[in-house]
Design goal:
With 292 residues, the chain is of the alpha/beta class. The chain contains eleven helices and eight strands. Strand 1, helix 2 and strand 2 form a beta-alpha-beta unit. Helix 5 (103-123) runs parallel beside helix 6. The protein starts with 11 loop residues before the first helix and ends with a helix. Bound molecules: zinc ion (ZN). Zinc ion binds at residues 89, 129, 131, 166.
Length: 292
């Protein structure tokens, strides 16, 4: 289904999220930055009021409390607002240093990512999302980068945190990391828009790594750029995603979305629309698994 998804009577939209019943998931989440300016506390309140159970955080300077050096106050803002703090997204500006032959370069990104792991451990946030590569022409995959990542996985194991590596452009890097490092502290973050734009076929990467799925970044786009639209507003092949979705997934269905221009101005409505679209995805997954 593309476009025009309307809330249906009896869905979580009308229940305002009082119901949490979706193919075994824990519930619904949305990234705490969804395109509106209010302070985190107000965004959290709006997310909760719309019916979500969880949220996630960009641990970089775009988030004002991080920018102001108050990152350690954020977990209580989220939890006092009644939401589960599902994951932290680690900033990845230095990520291509992972593939450098120079150990001192690799130490830079190792330091960045280790501090995100430590933040999660300190605040009992279960998962940190990481990119393993960026840009159009990244350095080649190299064993030094794999070994550096193995050190990060070891740190996550020691501290009881899980790393979820996300499919981006050049998803072969993520796949090689997952193939070569088998640990309960290392799993997969499925980004639907990156899959639609850069995957070989919609849902293929999810079918391969769904067994290690820890978190989701669900959004849609027009096939041209990473628009972060609500699912159903773009050209994404959601039926294919649903067919690849692991039926035993026990995490949250979480959006990573921004409003389209015409949706801007009413964050509450935007958030409620997101709930309806997660209902729709959950129903597609249920349908697909009942036919499997
Ligand atoms: Zn990401």
């Amino acid at each position: 289904m593309q476009g025009g998804l309307e809330p249906r009577p009896g869905s979580c939209y009308s229940d305002r999220g009082t119901r949490v019943a979706h193919m075994g998931t824990r519930g619904y989440g949305i990234f705490s930055w969804f395109g509106y300016r209010p302070a985190l506390e107000r965004r959290v309140r709006a997310i909760k009021a719309a019916g979500y159970q969880a949220t996630a955080l960009w641990l970089g300077r775009h988030e004002p409390l991080v920018h102001e050096g108050k990152a350690d106050t954020i977990p209580s803002v989220i939890r006092d607002g009644g939401l589960f703090f599902e994951y932290v997204h680690a900033p990845y500006g230095n990520v291509n240093k992972l593939w450098s032959a120079d150990p001192s370069e690799r130490a830079v990104i190792r330091g960045d990512y280790a501090s995100a792991i430590r933040f999660c451990a300190r605040h009992r946030v279960p998962t940190v999302v990481m990119h393993v590569v960026k840009g159009i022409n990244p350095p080649a995959y190299a064993s030094g980068g794999r070994d550096t990542f193995a050190d990060l996985v070891k740190l996550a194991e020691d501290l009881g945190v899980r790393i979820a590596v996300e499919n981006t452009r050049h998803e072969a890097y993520v796949e090689r990391i997952l193939e070569s490092l088998d640990s309960p502290s290392l799993g997969f973050c499925y980004d639907s828009s990156h899959d639609f734009l850069h995957g070989e076929e919609a849902g293929a990467v999810l079918a391969r790594w769904g067994k290690r799925l820890l978190v989701t970044h669900l959004s849609d786009n027009d096939g041209l750029a990473d628009r972060h639209w609500l699912p159903g507003l773009g050209t994404g092949r959601w039926e294919a995603v649903a067919r690849s979705f692991p039926p035993f997934y026990g995490g949250y269905l979480t959006l990573e979305v921004l409003p389209k221009r015409e949706q801007f101005g009413d964050p509450e409505r935007f958030l409620r629309d997101g709930i309806a679209r997660l209902d729709w995805i959950a129903s597609l997954v249920r349908e697909a698994s009942s036919q499997a």
